[in-house]
């Protein structure tokens, strides 16, 4: 299998959201990849269609998913879980809302280490919850957790959303960091929603460590959300997994979670099962391509936008770029959309810490990634060189 090198016109013709939601732009905002999916996924969906298995989900299909998820966790992360600990849900955001509604007390605040994934900000207000932002500390070569600020935000008990790998900064947490977080959570009587959706997309030099494995306390106070949707580019098939490492949580979900799990789609279940069991070779090739893109982006930014702040992601295909040095206003993504024809995410959507930044999806053909940076540089250079308007 060779990673396909589609052109922008071909990608628009395919009809994905990233390439059609904002016409006549280069799509690099929402987390969709431009490379299709694994052959094993195609085969599983073809078999489902041949059988016309468009019924309610049969028990055997769910059993296969649970077993495949447990196999995937053991093989990929050294995490031994029982299939019975796995529940199917439509997507990670549904799992997030279930965590808030079913596993935290009314009024419990939700704590986000920012910059954070945009929808994390939208769900808590729907549940009547306060959001507390704890900005990450940017160092010369990485990102650190502000432990005292995190402890203060969780004082009295709260729900910490721990995204690992961390969207949008691409941080992959080390064991010592996770252990320190778990001690703070335990000391404050808090809970953790561990979003590990990007876990299969970790690059050489880093290793994904499931949060629930770092201590007995972490296992007891957390629920983990997984999905094949990012690694295998199947978010529209609507299947994610919640992993319960606390027996009381598992029993509560079995009693009250039917409304959550029932919306999981059968095509997503069979696609995920096939991806976890048979998609390894395809994923390895994809990771190699994304790793090269990661290096290419760093080189392009250094050459064309040398004042941009950027650390290559250790995990995920999301890149986080600081454009504050170029003074593009409160919405640099809007400036680049209007001036360069690029659809990016405005960093401010990721919290107050994201002001002046943009989020870029690098899961695109190398030529497209190159054109994105070239257009950014040309638009910014043109803005800086433009004469001042004497009427202003």
TrEMBL record:
GO terms for molecular function: transaminase activity. Its cofactor is pyridoxal 5'-phosphate. The keyword Iron-sulfur does not apply. Gene3D superfamilies: Aspartate Aminotransferase, domain 1, Type I PLP-dependent aspartate aminotransferase-like (Major domain). SUPFAM superfamilies: PLP-dependent transferases. Residues 34-375 form the Aminotransferase class I/classII large domain. Its EC number is 4.4.1.13. It comes from the Bacteria. Keywords: Aminotransferase, Lyase, Pyridoxal phosphate, Transferase. Pfam families: Aminotran_1_2. The keyword Protein biosynthesis does not apply. Belongs to the class-II pyridoxal-phosphate-dependent aminotransferase family. MalY/PatB cystathionine beta-lyase subfamily. This is cysteine-S-conjugate beta-lyase.
């Amino acid at each position: 299998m060779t990673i396909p090198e589609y052109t922008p016109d071909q990608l628009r013709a395919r009809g994905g959201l990233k390439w059609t939601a904002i016409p006549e732009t280069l799509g690099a905002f929402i987390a969709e990849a431009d490379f299709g999916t694994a052959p094993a996924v195609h085969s599983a969906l073809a078999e489902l269609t041949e059988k016309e298995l468009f019924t309610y989900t049969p028990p055997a299909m769910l059993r296969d998913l649970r077993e495949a998820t447990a196999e995937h966790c053991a093989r990929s992360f050294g995490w031994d879980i029982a299939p019975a600990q796995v529940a199917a849900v439509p997507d990670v955001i549904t799992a997030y809302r279930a965590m808030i509604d079913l596993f935290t007390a009314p009024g419990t605040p939700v704590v986000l280490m920012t910059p954070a994934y945009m929808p994390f900000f939208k769900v808590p207000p729907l549940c009547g919850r306060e959001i507390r932002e704890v900005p990450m500390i940017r160092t010369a070569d990485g990102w650190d957790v502000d432990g005292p600020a995190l402890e203060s935000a969780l004082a009295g008990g709260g729900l910490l959303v721990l995204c690992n790998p961390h969207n949008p900064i691409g941080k992959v947490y080390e064991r010592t960091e996770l252990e320190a977080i778990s001690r703070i959570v335990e000391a404050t009587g808090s809970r953790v929603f561990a979003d590990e959706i990007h876990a299969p997309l970790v690059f050489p030099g880093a290793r994904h460590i499931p949060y629930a494995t770092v201590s007995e306390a972490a296992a007891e106070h957390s629920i983990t959300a997984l999905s094949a949707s990012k690694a295998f580019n199947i978010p529209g098939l609507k299947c994610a997994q919640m992993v319960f490492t606390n027996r009381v949580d598992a029993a509560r979900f079995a009693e009250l979670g039917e409304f959550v799990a029932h919306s999981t789609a059968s095509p997503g279940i069979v696609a995920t099962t096939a991806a976890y069991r048979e998609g390894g070779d395809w994923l390895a090739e994809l990771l190699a391509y994304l790793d090269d893109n990661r290096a290419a982006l760093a080189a392009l930014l250094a050459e064309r936008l040398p004042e941009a702040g950027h650390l290559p992601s250790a995990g995920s295909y999301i890149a986080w770029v600081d454009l504050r040095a170029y003074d593009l206003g409160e919405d640099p993504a809007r400036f680049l959309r209007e001036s360069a024809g690029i659809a990016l995410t405005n960093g401010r959507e990721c919290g107050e810490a994201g002001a002046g930044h943009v989020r870029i999806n690098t899961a695109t053909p190398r030529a497209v990634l190159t054109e994105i940076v070239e257009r950014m540089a040309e638009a910014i250079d043109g803005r800086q060189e433009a004469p001042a308007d004497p009427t202003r």
